[in-house]
Structures are given as structure tokens and as C-alpha cells.
Amino acid sequence: MKLLILDLDNTVRRPKSGAKFISTPDDQEIIPGSARAIAHYKSQGFLIVGATNQGGVAAGHKQLEDAIQEQYQTLRLCPEIWCIYFCPDYEGQFCWFCTLDPEEISTPIHLGWAANYQGSFRKPGAGMLNAAIENGLGSKNPEHQILFVGDRDEDKGAAEAANVNFLWASDWWESGAANL
Predict the structure, then answer these.
(1) Measured distance CA(121)–CA(50) in Å, rounded
(2) Which helix (H) or strand (E) is 148 found in, with range?
(3) What is the dihedral of CA 22, 23, 24, 26, to 10 degrees?
(4) Is the entire prediction scored with pTM above 0.85?
(5) Superfamily for domain range 7-178
(6) I need a labelling partner for 49 at 20 to 30 A (CA). Which of 59, 97, 123, 137 fits?
């Protein structure tokens, strides 16, 4: 079993407007290097999910519903991503699961099966990564290949906390381009 967990902002997507942060769900584009890398990992049989802090909700820069719609737009732009986990608060108490998969239900997971990760959802906590592993692979197993890709120290810290391999986004973009 293979699982690729991706940070999203500045790893997979960026604002089309050139602003520092995505301001509306449609103000995003897929970074070309990430599109190639995603295609490479998908061809290698990886299940691909996203894990993103969305502190703009807690800071009052966007509404929760806008953050939810932002994730759906990313899934439409990059259909190789099966689902996205996102944490909209600074304390890591809340996490949402968004998917376009008609077999699955988008839901706040902090109220259900992943409630035991409450308080650690926000990266550098391991909650979102552990939830992705549990939901995607069933459990951690030494035979599983699990990789988390990100662009910030918080991402690397989350990978260390979850005890999974980490790769910097810039290295990941290069690896995907080299393998296509």
C-alpha cells in the first residue's frame, strides 16, 4: 500500500491572483511541477490525499464555507487527489474531510471516527496525517510506503510527529519531472 500526503498551499496550488494567500475558491491554480509529480506518483500506484492548515478561517480572512469550497475546487483542478483534510483553527481541534468521491461523505471528522486526534490536527501536529493514514491505509504498517510532501517547517514537523517520510516540495517537483 502506498500513500502520498500533500500539503496544498505552495506545494500543490498557488493563488492565480499573485496574492500571498488564496482569496476565493476560484483564485487558485495547480503549480506545474506538482502536476507532473502527482501524475508520476499516481502512475506508481499511490493513493493521494491533501492535508492543509487553513488558519485564514481562524484569523477571520475567510469563512469556513469558503475554505470548504476552496478544497472542492482543488479536487476539481486535480482529480488525482482522492480527498483533502483541513484544519481551520489554531488549536488543532477541528478537521474537515472533503472529497468528490460519490461513495464517500464530506464531513467534519473531529466529530466522528478521528475524534481521538482532536487537539493535534493543525500541523506541525500529526493529527491530519494520522487520520489520512487510518482512513486511506487502515493503519501504519512497516510495509506501507507513506510520504508527506510540504514546503514549510510545520510540514516537516508533522511528518516527524507522525513518523513518516518527508520530502520538500521543491525536491518533489524535480523528482516528478525527472520521472516523466
Answers:
(1) 13
(2) strand 145-150
(3) -40
(4) yes
(5) HAD superfamily/HAD-like (3.40.50.1000)
(6) 59
